[in-house]
Specification:
The chain has 291 residues and is mainly α. The chain is built from 10 helices and no strands.
Length: 291
């Protein structure tokens, strides 16, 4: 053995692929690194959640999938817990501005709570490819409706049955994927029930508070909520949600539509790149296993 590679008892261990001494094998990830990784996700989710009335889950879940290190079930649970914080402060802000119709919000919330619990129970069987694929199929339709609202689509009467069914369907997506039902309720109310955007946002934010509460309780019992990550997301998201809701109140509807459409396209592109990455990793593992 050469002098260059001989072990010296008093010398610090060196990782050949690094420029200095290696970290202790069980050293925890520094708090500052976690803050840099997860706090921006909370800021983006909170701002868009408050600005567009979507609860923030459709931003937080894809960003956690793309840049986080959580299992799919933990992504769903942790995102939904973040949505609970955002929707709580967001619904209060929208209510104070007079943008919540309780008569429409209540039946949607009833259906949404039931759907959220059912979806959360299904989350443990999810794969990463399924979560990514679902988002990639769903988001383009809503983006098209935001950019071209005049395109024909079926119009539905806002009765109790249709609103409860809307809540149940979006609640399942909320609990199953952790995106928060508000991100689906807003474009659904605008596209199918012909509500104006700011009214739909206020209703959706209130419903998100109800279904995220039920979904988080179920995810918590299944140990799907990563409270360490939530600690870095929630405080930043709370402040950003209030700021976003106040800005939304002053924007005209065409601007809100374009923002929602651009937001949807950006999330789709992030997910598409992540789906390609996951597919390539699976192919490499498959090729390695055949050798």
């Amino acid at each position: 053995m050469s002098n260059a590679t001989r072990s010296v008892p008093w010398a610090p261990s060196v990782n050949p692929s690094s420029d200095g001494p290696s970290s202790p094998p069980c050293a925890p990830v520094p708090a500052a690194a976690k803050a840099r990784q997860y706090s921006p996700i909370g800021a983006v989710g909170g701002m868009f959640g408050g600005l567009l009335g979507i609860g923030g889950g459709s931003a937080i879940a894809p960003l956690l999938l793309a840049f986080g290190s959580l299992k799919p079930s933990q992504v769903a649970g942790t995102t939904l817990a973040s949505v609970l914080v955002i929707s709580a402060v967001g619904s209060v802000t929208y209510a104070s501005l007079g943008h919540i119709d309780v008569g429409i919000a209540l039946p949607i919330a009833v259906g949404s709570v039931a759907g959220s619990v059912a979806g959360a129970l299904m989350a443990r069987r999810l794969s990463m490819r399924f979560m990514l694929g679902f988002f990639l199929l769903l988001l383009p339709y809503f983006a098209i409706k935001e950019f071209w609202p005049a395109l024909a689509s079926p119009a539905l009467a806002a009765n109790i049955i249709s609103l409860v069914l809307l809540g149940f369907a979006t609640g399942i997506c909320s609990g199953l994927l952790g995106i928060g039902g508000a991100s689906l309720i807003v474009p659904s109310l605008v596209a199918f029930f012909l509500l104006d955007h700011i009214a739909a946002q206020g209703i959706a934010m209130t419903v998100a508070l109800a279904d995220s509460s039920a979904g988080v309780a179920t995810h918590a019992r299944s140990k799907n909520v990563n409270y360490g990550v939530l600690l870095y997301i929630a405080p930043v998201a709370l402040v950003a949600a209030i700021a976003g809701a106040l800005v939304s109140h002053r924007l005209p509807e065409p601007v809100l539509r374009n923002l929602f459409g651009a937001f949807t396209v950006a999330i789709w592109l992030i997910l598409a790149s992540r789906r390609i990455s996951v597919t390539l990793q699976q192919r490499r593992r498959s090729s390695a296993g055949q050798r």
